[in-house]
Design a protein that fits this description.
Radius of gyration: 19 Å
Protein name: Glycosyl transferase family 2
CATH topology: Spore Coat Polysaccharide Biosynthesis Protein SpsA, Chain A
Shape: globular
Order of helices and strands: EHEHHEHHEEHEHEHHEHEH
Number of domains: 1
Strand content: 15-25%
CATH architecture: Alpha-Beta Complex
Distance between the termini: 30 Å
Length: about 300
């Protein structure tokens, strides 16, 4: 079976990111070649940890490649010179362009600063597996996705479908769900558009565990001027890209539509909260990053603290 590369974003939580990779190596290590860690301008000490001899030795024979953004990108739309997606209005460009100009002194992003773009462009593999830094893997999800890919025609992306928790179709009668989408039963003629305003795009393959075709990513970037990792057209990461992939005739898949079955492969937010909750209140309050808890988990599970 061919190998894949891995892409993960980093910001100020190296223990969590490394523990995620340790559990991934335990379950899927033989199927992975290179791990691309893209850091969003963390404080000193974070990137140095990834580049340390201890980390490089632990993950051998994986190749660990680390890059630091030229400026903070945070969360929100970023614009790349020469790439104007069809949804982008002049008003929205000016609004967020001025925010970027105020925050970073730049109107445009460097292309590789867009989430996951560095890995998607640098990888020589057919697939790049994208993950968040707060996952605990308990089975070989990479093999699952690769096996499923063999049965697909013109695939673009495989992973965990939907942001159903803020989609109006999830609470309608009869409710939409992942299984229906995978059977080709869509909630409206406008799907994957699911609403208006900030709820306009609730449907996507979620970025915290998904395998993206490098061929599709490069094609969509050039033909649609859209990057997977951007926040386009009032959507979260990958939502507008998902729409454009479907429009171009690419296929997608969620191999496991049952939430309980997914838990056999990985637990997202195993620390008891979402990763973003360390930085912002997402409705349940802002939480404390528990690096000591993670290091204790490393020691108990793997006998080493990286």
């Amino acid at each position: 079976m061919s190998k894949v590369d891995v892409a993960v974003q980093s910001y100020m939580k190296p223990e969590s990111l490394l523990y995620t990779l340790m559990t991934l190596k335990e379950q899927s290590g033989a199927l992975i070649d290179t791990v691309y860690i893209n850091d969003d301008c963390s404080a000193p000490g974070v990137v140095e940890k990834y580049r340390s001899a201890a980390v490089q030795e632990y993950f051998h024979p994986w190749k660990i490649k680390v890059r630091v953004n030229t400026h903070r990108t945070k969360w929100g739309p970023g614009f790349v010179r020469g790439y104007w997606p069809r949804h982008l209005s002049v008003w929205r460009f000016l609004k967020f362009g001025l925010i970027n100009l105020y925050s970073n002194g730049r109107l445009f992003y460097d292309r590789e600063n867009i989430r996951y773009q560095w890995a998607l462009e640098q990888s020589d593999k057919e697939w790049v597996y994208l993950i968040h830094d707060d996952i605990e893997f308990t089975d070989d999800v990479v093999k699952l996705y690769l096996d499923y890919a063999q049965r697909m025609t013109n695939p673009a992306i495989i992973g965990d479908l939907g942001q159903c928790w803020f989609c109006r179709h999830f609470t309608e009668e009869p409710p939409c769900n992942r299984a229906k989408i995978m059977e080709g039963i869509y909630p409206s003629e406008e799907w994957p558009i699911t609403g208006v305003g900030k709820k306009r795009r609730a449907c996507r393959i979620n970025e915290w565990s998904c395998m993206v075709s490098t061929r599709a990513a490069r094609d969509i970037a050039e033909r649609e001027r859209a990057f997977f990792g951007n926040y386009d057209d009032f959507g979260d990461v990958g939502a507008y890209w998902f729409d454009r992939a479907i429009a171009l005739g690419y296929s997608f898949a969620d191999p496991i539509t049952d939430s309980d079955e997914k838990l056999k492969f990985y637990l997202h937010g195993w620390q008891g909260h979402s990763g973003h909750a360390v930085w912002v209140n997402q409705g349940d309050g802002k939480v404390q990053y528990q690096n000591s808890l993670i290091e204790q988990r490393m020691q108990e599970k793997f006998g080493v603290v990286l």
